[in-house]
């Protein structure tokens, strides 16, 4: 029995080592991309292995397991080390990101979330033609009267932006399987900011990780171009990627921050949300540039297979410091 426990412990440590490896691995091999999605669970196995090896007095194994666990903690620690979401008396924007599963999410619940949170900007993925009037009938257009929408008749390719304040420079960014749009928001009394709604194609279940990798790179290029205009940028997206994908960290690694990581909210699992078990993958995100996110949390969206993500975003100047009045 003792020998079997030691073997199982070593397997657990090996699983954790694989989790650390795929966290850093920039790959388009679909199976490795999928494994990276579950990296935190693999890393957690290392803790079990460490405890068993320590209890069975496997000194060398305990040292190895401790090193693997330390490396695992190092990869996840940034998600829990937040910074102040209030760098000064600065304008605040309430943001909600929602994937509505081919337009099937309950429109009344979504609108109630918008109303209760006093949302200023809503980004929507999987927006269908027939979902637009149903959302309007539920009161969304009354709450957020300005919009830029690129719905699709069916499927998950439609994307849209609703705003409490006027929009300009509405742009559909071409070259994506699923629509990506952006707009400039003009709120009275403060300088404009940019809003982006994106939805890179999932790398699975079909082997299309090469396309996903290309689209993640294209999204990064577009976001860098928008950031270069010197205004705050807010992104709401189903990236089909977690913090443990190197492609996602590359996207947020140059002037952008993931709201959950920046605020210290940790892993906000959003998918799948339509099972008897809770969501396990954090693939829906809000990103910010020239801003600081706080009060970040997941939001239930009945009828969808995703949870939404809500955040309060404090706009800052282009150099990262609070704007003065």
TrEMBL record:
Q: Which InterPro entries match?
A: Endo/exonu/phosph_ase_sf (IPR036691), Endo/exonuclease/phosphatase (IPR005135)
The UniProt GO MF terms for this protein read: endonuclease activity
Regions crossing the membrane: 29-55, 62-81
One Pfam match, given by its short name, reads Exo_endo_phos
Keyword terms, alphabetized: Endonuclease, Hydrolase, Membrane, Nuclease, Transmembrane, Transmembrane helix
Where the record annotates domain Endonuclease/exonuclease/phosphatase, the positions are 96-306
Q: What is this protein called?
A: Endonuclease/exonuclease/phosphatase family protein
């Amino acid at each position: 029995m003792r020998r079997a426990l030691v073997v199982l412990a070593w397997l657990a440590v090996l699983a954790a080592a694989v989790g650390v490896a795929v966290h850093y691995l920039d790959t388009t091999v679909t199976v490795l991309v999928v494994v990276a999605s579950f990296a935190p669970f693999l890393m957690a196995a290392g803790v079990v292995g460490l405890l068993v090896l320590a209890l069975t007095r496997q000194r060398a194994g305990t040292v190895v397991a401790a090193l693997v666990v330390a490396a695992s903690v190092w990869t996840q620690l940034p998600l829990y080390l937040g910074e102040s979401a209030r760098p000064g008396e600065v304008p605040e924007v309430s943001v909600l990101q929602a994937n509505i599963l081919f337009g099937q999410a309950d429109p009344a619940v979504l609108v109630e979330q918008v109303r209760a949170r006093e949302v200023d900007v809503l980004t929507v993925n999987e927006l269908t033609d027939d979902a637009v009037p149903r959302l309007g009938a539920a009161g969304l257009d009354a709450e957020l009267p300005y919009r830029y929408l690129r719905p699709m008749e069916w499927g998950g390719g439609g994307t849209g932006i609703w705003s409490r304040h006027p929009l300009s420079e509405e742009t559909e960014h071409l070259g994506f399987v699923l629509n990506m749009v952006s707009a400039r928001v003009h709120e009275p009394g403060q300088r404009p900011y940019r809003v982006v709604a994106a939805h890179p194609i999932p790398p699975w279940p079909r082997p299309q990780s090469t396309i996903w990798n290309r689209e993640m790179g294209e999204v990064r290029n577009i976001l860098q171009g928008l950031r270069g205009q010197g205004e705050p940028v807010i992104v709401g997206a189903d990236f089909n990627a977690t913090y443990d994908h190197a492609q996602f960290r590359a996207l947020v690694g140059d002037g952008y921050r993931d709201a959950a990581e920046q605020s210290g909210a940790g892993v906000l699992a959003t998918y799948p949300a339509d099972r008897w078990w809770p969501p396990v993958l954090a693939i829906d995100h809000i990103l910010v540039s020239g801003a600081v996110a706080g009060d970040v949390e997941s939001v239930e969206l009945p009828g969808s297979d995703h949870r939404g993500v809500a955040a309060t975003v404090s706009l800052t100047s282009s150099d990262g410091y609070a704007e003065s009045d």
